[in-house]
Known about the structure:
It is a single chain. This protein is mainly β. The chain has three domains: 203 residues, no CATH class; 182 residues; 127 residues, no CATH class. The protein is built from three helices and 36 strands. The protein has an eleven-stranded mixed sheet with strand order 2-13-11-5-8-7-6-9-4-1-12, with no helix packed on it. Strands 14, 16, 20, 21, 23 and 25 form a six-stranded antiparallel sheet that branches. A hairpin with a 3-residue loop joins strand 30 and strand 31. It starts with a helix and ends in an 8-residue tail after the last helix. About 6% of the residues have low confidence.
Amino acid sequence: xxxxxxxxxxLAVLAFLLGSAVTASxxxxxxCIASGATNTPVRFEGLTEMVGDVLITCTGGTPTxxxxxxxxxxxxxxxxxxxxxxxxxxxxxxxxxxxSEALLILDEPVVSNQYGCGTQTCINGGNGxxxxxxxxxxxxxxxxxxxxxxxxxxxxxxxxSNTVTFxxxxxxxxxxxxAQRIIRITNVRANxxxxxxxxxxxxxxxxxxxxTSTPSTTLPINGLATQAVxxxxxxxxxxxxxxxxxxxxxxxxxxxxxxxxxxxxNIAQLRYQELFGTAFKKRSVSSSGSSPSSMADQNDIxxxxxxxxxxxxxxxxxxxxxxxxxxxxxxxxxxxxxxxTRLKAVFNSIPAGIRIWVxxxxxxxxxxxxxxxxxxxxxxxxxxxxxxxxxxxxxxxGTATAVWEVLQSDPTTLADLRMGxxxxxxxxxxxxxxxxxxxxxxxxxxxxSTVGVAVSSVVPRFADTSTASxxxxxxxxxxxxxxxxVTSQLGFDTGIAISSTSTDPFATSxxxxxxxxxxYGAAFTGATPTPIVTSGTTYTALTSQTxxxxxxxxxxxxxxxxxxxxxxxxxxxxYLGARNIAMGYLALVLPDPARAxxxxxxxxxxxxEQLGQ
Length: 613
């Protein structure tokens, strides 16, 4: 019995050692796995597309002792294209060595538990358990470190055109399962346009992110080294539709027929089609038609993926080294967009004398709540341009621009937004007004830019991938005169007279122009021009003199196409010297084919001699 009592202390020590050995063997080493949180569709046209977040999930390891400093690591995210997250330091194109709006967040904190590191590096203290404890307390510089001053949101620095680095991130091993440490990288924007787009049935190009850590022993990242965080797709299809929404044919504007300021007489519809559900976005969760510029926090991590806004993670209360930056529109915070998706129409080659109007509000076709309204400029703060109804555009050097901002968007539908285009002018062909010519239009996202690197302002921005489409043509007013018999053979000749009768007592605009005489006969088929026939005068000629080079003379008919209204013709056929036989007739006025689909329908086409047209 005495010997047994002597063995009790020995057995106790042995039991303690065995228990410690079991605990130590149960402790797994720290292991972290990187995964793309979302392989989100991104717009091919975009230069500042918000890509999906990257998540790193860590388990195991030995938690940092209570009061000791948590080991730190540098984390890099590297894309296969330029990172264009807003530069939060002004005057540094490319943002190199400057703070970015990209953020690293620890442990998915709820809104009330988010604490930003206000300096380049922060010291977090261990609590011995690896549990996530964060607070707003004062940071200390020596042990024991205040766990209630631990920070969980860190700002990145752009260290290369495609790289953002997060310096000195404290990573406390979470310890035994099911404890885990989650690292989220968000607010990463990319120049997606550099990657191109697929055609046919090819898979879309991917935006990929590679994550590195230094030292890797502090944050050993396993799993796939490269993650897909974006799928490049076209976001916008632009086309022209007829005034009623059907297939489009370019509008012919008759130079001599005035068009009144817009009522319901639109010449076309601009059609902007959303090609995937999140291609059109409003500015912020609080933006609306009644409050277009409203901004709100978007820092509820549990709601990520439901915002469908151009703004990313944004917190007004967050303390960071570079939280806001001056922009052309005032200032912007980390994660903030300056406007929602904007849609642009650029009208080019507008003939002098033409005025252009557009609908102020877009009309939505189909089951969607998407709404867009005209704003004053493509890269200026929101301000309604004009009033409800229609707004006239300012034309400078033959170019006019209209920009609508999306104020409401629905990610569950594909938007189809349409805006009417109206043309008005006062006919004055005598002064060549409106001038003859063809107007075109390009439709795209806005603002368009060629800056494909990080800068401190203009988010979002887009590459111009548009092509020009003809929307209208100002065509001349003409009178077509048929002379059914004209001859200069067998001793006969035909005198021709064409008068411009637009000088009259009816207040008609005087018109002048040339006529093209189109001859059709066995001996000759061709055309000859006349000099300018001034309003109130008459052009006269003999067929024998006009076609003096036709051997044996001419016999057939002639159609005169005069570039003015109210032309009238007379022909006089006679034997040489008007002896023996002679006759005269009035030329027939043919309808103008440019004024109706059926040139033979006088009621539909009108003619060059009808007043009031």
